[in-house]
Structure formats: C-alpha cells, structure tokens
Amino acid sequence: MTDILVVDDDASIRSVIRMALEDAGFHVSEAANGKAAVVEHRRTPRALVILDIGMPELDGFETCTALRKFSNVPVLFLTARDDEIDRVLGFQLGGDDYVTKPFSPRELILRVKAILSRGRLAEDDGRLVHGDLSLRAQAHEAVLAGQPLDLTATEFALLHMLMAAPDWVRTRDQIISAVYGANNVMSDRTIDSHIRNLRHKTQALGYTDIIRTIHGVGLRLGSCTA
What we know:
This protein has 226 residues and is α/β, with parallel strands linked by helices. 40% of the residues lie in helices and 20% in strands. It has helices at 11-23, 34-43, 60-68, 85-90, 105-119, 153-164, 172-180, 188-203, and strands spanning 3-7, 27-31, 48-52, 75-79, 97-100, 127-130, 133-136, 141-144, 147-148, 211-214, 218-221. Strands 2-1-3-4-5 form a five-stranded parallel beta sheet, with helices on both faces. A hairpin with a 2-residue loop joins strand 6 and strand 7 (133-136). The N and C termini lie far apart (43 Å). 36% of the residues are buried.
C-alpha cells in the first residue's frame, strides 16, 4: 500500500486529508510540523509528502528545502493563497504540484494520483539520449554532459515526454495532459515554473538549448548541446 505523509499544523485538516486518502486506498502517516516531517521521512521514506506552507517554526518552504537535501520525494503543497505558490515552484524548492485551501478532497486525490503516476512513468531499462542529455526512466536518472541532474518527479516527467519525441512540438494542453493526467485543470503559471526550474538547472551546467519555446505553438526539445 502506498504510504503518504501529511504535514499540517491543523489537526482537523490532517483528519480530512487522512480520510480522503484512506478511502482512496492509501496508507497515511501524519506530522504536525516541518521538523517532525523531515525526521519521519528520513527514517521511513514515503511515496509522497503533502505539505502545508503556512506552518510556524519550519514553514512549508523550509521543510521542502530540508527534504530536498536527501530526497527527491514528490511534494504536493497546500496553500492558503494561490499567489504564494509561484515563489515555491519558481525558486527551485522542488514542489511538484499544489492545492489551494479550501480544497475539494476529490481534487486532492486526483492530484495525488497524477503525481504518483508520473513516478511510474516507465517500467523498462531503456535509455533516451539526445545530444549531451540522457535519461533512464526506471532509475529516475538524468545526466547532462556526464553531470547528474537533480530533478523532481514532475521535472523528470516533463523532460522525458519531450525526449521521447524530440522533433515534435508539444502544446501546453498536451504537456499538461501528459505530465499531470487527462482532465486535470492546471494553470500555465505552474507548468511555466517547472520549465523555468529545468532551464535553471541545465543553464548552471552551461546549457542554454534544452527546451525551446515555439511562439504561438508550444515547446520542443532543443539540441541539448553546449
């Protein structure tokens, strides 16, 4: 059974999320603050962390940063304000998705399932290679010019989708459907944040042509050469 860690300082919200997840067939663990969440996940890694942003002491931003020091576990943020999440995804903290409070338990479950499905993107040992970039889906391994790329599940899924057909231009709707699942309502700002993160990580290695924007159409893979 898939184990999910729910982190929120509000016990009533944790209870609502627990009931929704357990009804959907997941096993749920809880933490009332960010420090406890880091300790819990280090001791027993979970498949996904649902993480509230507005917590005292160690907030959601800081907790995600602490988790990223030793884990690529997918993170679904809970936020009271839609505008604050762009800072999370835009500052390379490694968030995979978010839900704004008050949220629908059904929407939460759909987003959880979409994130987990991205982690199971491929079940083979096949390696994709384009230019200086190579991916191995089963190992969640991305290597650029011999240097490993530390990608979240969402970033990896986005890059894998583009590499699977490097000559194709993907529209935003196609990207959202492939990465987040069909019938998923996702803002352009969220997908833009993941693309910015990918470009930031590859530019740090001297590569500026990993993802190309075809204005008025969508995105395609670049040459992946320096």
